[in-house]
């Protein structure tokens, strides 16, 4: 007889909805080459149990069924995970009577004691107690919680803890066997997950949000800031609270989905945005220009301001409702205008009396630019059902708020402010560094490059319509984008060094991808993209006289140099797609640049083969191919008009029609047909674009829809997708008069007959 764990019976899973898939089939066979399924996102409900219930079940199994400690532990784990489908990744998976089990449970108790102690600092109305006793204990508790939620229990936490480990030599062999089995069953377990789960289950997030109110903020009508009311102790506790919340809410790179889900739930619960914007405004105003007062403090006002901005960034990332809450915070209570006005004040903060800026000041700008990027970019891909009910109903956020935030930033005048920051970060690199290179880059130089990348990323997300693009070009953003792209492509011998080289290379990749992304968005304007593609000698634009040559070689070189970075490849293909749209001259310019790196066609095909599973890249590459070939490929020479021939000849600077580039042969020789059918065509996100590219290349192709439910019921499950224009409409394109409706007497006679049969009544 199997032991039974004490747990509620899991609920039945919901049935999936009807699913459809669109894919490509080969013209020579009816067997599909692509098998992708697009399903509706369902809520993934993870069932969890407490540590006490797990320990109680384990001890009962051991006692009732006379099992050894190891067998009882294994049986209990299998009962919960395999039979009842309950997650136990957050539990201490060791026997409660073993030495390691006792030590781990003592650590868990210490963590709970820290959370309970911090909760005693909060009054019943949510305010912080007026006088905090044992300040060192509060600081140790905050740091202990932060370290546990970041890396799990470590030596740093041991230094803050009062836990005394025990050791029993008699059970060494049995405990070693238990540890081996535990490691085998939890190879991918995140050490911070148990502590994050306890933090979530104890609702400690509300305690930490209340601790943000330990610093007294001035009223909105105050004319002068009174910093003397806040003691150094309160400021220190505030800073430690902010650092802890950053570690808890920060998106993780962990491989375990449970950790990401717990962090996402905690981000949904974070609602202290009015307090956050208030701190942002307060520390913006009290940050000193000369920093004479900050020298006597343990933590400067500028550093606290940087960490407040970081907290705002991590709390808004991948959560649309939090972004809206941050922007709307304090808008109706005072004249400050909410979170966006606070961001503008930070960017305009006179942090230095001269043109030299410290690393702290550069970091402030960089973090603020990252916050702007987060607010203006959609990254919350959860379905409406997956979001917490209270959060989803707070402002009714079911769509992206990115465009609204971009327009509001544009109205408050952020474009010239960002351009000034970009100009500062690139001014030292625009002459000597770009032309000669600089092998002696120090940490300050790397910070400047990082600032340039962050500012350009913030500018990129703002370029969403033609009005903003023209405003950016008017202030001179094209020159800055060209300089930044060249800086990212510099060859530096020290990039191959051990530590600094890795950091420098990562920053340059970020700078290159940001510059390409900005150029991609700027190409939404036809005149600007022609200037970028052909150079100012081929364009009538007078605002870009510095572009004496095409920027296409730099884009191709970037795609070749950073061939292993999918973001660079995606932005490169996206830029080509935007440049070639409705511009045959630009399309031919992209194809003809074969001198240095093989031309645009080769760059596009290479990245498609290198990243077969990166759907956004495949989609942009298909669009680039389609836009290039759609107006240049001529399957029948009789279809080529004189005007089109003249346009292509002007673009290629040739005098004979037989010298024109055979676009179709260029792509087919590179194997693009196989790539479009078997790589791009098997993804739901790029199948339509792959179909269009194959069609414009003159290849035989058709779309097929797969019905999963029909296949499950024994049917073929396939049906050809009807394309527009394939079936003639069922209506007569002529007009014929009817005697019955136009005074012929037929309809009137019938009406009279019916009226007479009803006794002479009328209708």
Instruction: Give the overall form.
Output: globular
The neighbouring-strand order within the major sheet is: 1-2-3
Mean pLDDT: 78
Please give the largest β-sheet. 3 strands, antiparallel
Put simply, the count of helices is 35
- The number of E-state strands comes to 3
Percentage of residues in strands: under 5%
As a whole number of angstroms, the C-alpha radius of gyration is 33 Å
Structural class: mainly alpha
Q: What distance lies between the first and last C-alpha atoms, to the nearest angstrom?
A: 83 Å
Poorly predicted residue ranges: 1-44, 388-396, 430-437, 496-500, 538-544, 635-642, 647-659
Helix content: 55-70%
